[in-house]
Amino acid sequence: MIRALITVSVLLISLTASSACRNADALAQGINGGDPANGRHLLYSYSCGSCHVIPGVTEADGTIGPPLSGFGSRVYIAGLQENTPENLSRWIAQPQEVQPGNAMPDLGVTRQQARDIAAYLYTLR
Questions:
Q1: Where are the domains of the chain?
Q2: Whether 49 contacts 68, CB under 8 Å
């Protein structure tokens, strides 16, 4: 009987966690029209993890820039701008235009790619 209760409890916790992840992805996609799964891939392919720690992104363990864990709950982007989808997408695509001379390089990220990356970052709570 106890074993059955433990099994049911573990199953319910797993389903709740899975549902929360899907809800976070849906919310992030709804915020800016980006694709969080593609955003995670782009963070890897643009080597963002060479400067940042990014949960869920392989080899993203850099210490040059700030860690991006919990980014979806942050109030500001780079301590400069309100954390809105429009501001974040612009920061990702054109960081040197937003704040000339900052440490984040312009990487040639397109507007849609920036929306996808932003969508992923908003899933990090």
A1: 2-123
A2: no
Please give the CATH superfamily to which domain 2-123 belongs.
Cytochrome c-like domain (1.10.760.10)
**93's tokens:** 């695509």
Tens place of pLDDT for every residue, the chain, 125 residues?
A: 555 444 444 443 443 444 444 555 555 555 778 999 999 999 999 999 999 999 999 999 999 999 999 999 999 999 989 999 999 999 999 999 999 999 999 999 999 999 999 999 999 99
Element (H, E) at 77: strand 76-77
pTM, rounded to two decimals: 0.77
